[in-house]
Amino acid sequence: MTPDALPLPTRCAHCGLRASGAFHQLAASELGFIEDLRSASERVPAGHVLIREQVDGGRLYTLYAGWAFRYKTLSDGRRQILNFLLPGDFFGLQQRFSEGATYGVEALTEASVCVFQGNRLWELYRAHPRLGYDLTWLCAREEQMLDENLLTTGRRSALERVAVLLIHLFKRLQRLGLVAEDNSCAFPLTQQHMADALGLSLVHTHRTLRRLQALGLHSLEDGRLVLRNPHALTQLADYAAQPMEQLPLL
């Protein structure tokens, strides 16, 4: 069963993500602590706001199934999508270091999340240093992705921006086992989502997608992406793919 279709487990030991092979295995004591730290599991509809900007909800999350995205908005409603969240991604930590959340998180599709108690972070670091390292690793990985996003919006052309978004999400989905043998995968992003993530107008995003498709690099239809030539798309994006190693999972 793929991570996007997993039923919510009642016990962390029965976690379908951990059984997927994409994530590190944990000792029984570490798994027991995570289960104790987890306060709830929730299913939310597409469009549900999990974290509101400038509001301290005090909860931390792991996305268990579905897609979500982090974003910031200006006073006139303009939105910048910071990054897209896939199964296994951890979020909400930054609100522990400010008076309110510095960003929002919205479910892009119907999604399932594991909810954790944010006030027990010190206990995690003290009792389970390896889990503390995993948490630090996840934060460093997010910073690395944001660095790449800044390079994309600051220096890449429109063609390169769309190409790097497609190949980056494709590689992340591939790591999770969500890419079929024909290089196709579910892709629920609208062109507006892509425009908001890439700093492009909706019209420019549409034209760029059509140009990439005319080059025979991809097709995108009915919420499904097919990469016709991943190698050429990677070269066009000037994208350095990361090794397909296992990831931490809280």
UniProtKB/TrEMBL annotation:
Residue limits of the HTH crp-type domain? Answer: 156-231
Q: Which InterPro entries has this protein been placed in?
A: cNMP-bd_dom, cNMP-bd_dom_sf, HTH_CRP, RmlC-like_jellyroll, WH-like_DNA-bd_sf, WH_DNA-bd_sf
List UniProt keywords, sorted A-Z. DNA-binding, Transcription, Transcription regulation
- Secreted recorded as keyword: no
Q: Which PROSITE patterns match?
A: CNMP_BINDING_3, HTH_CRP_2
Query: In the UniProt record, does the keyword Cytoplasm occur?
Result: no
Positions of the Cyclic nucleotide-binding domain: 22-92
**Pfam families linked to this entry:** cNMP_binding (PF00027), HTH_Crp_2 (PF13545)
Q: What is this protein called?
A: Crp/Fnr family transcriptional regulator
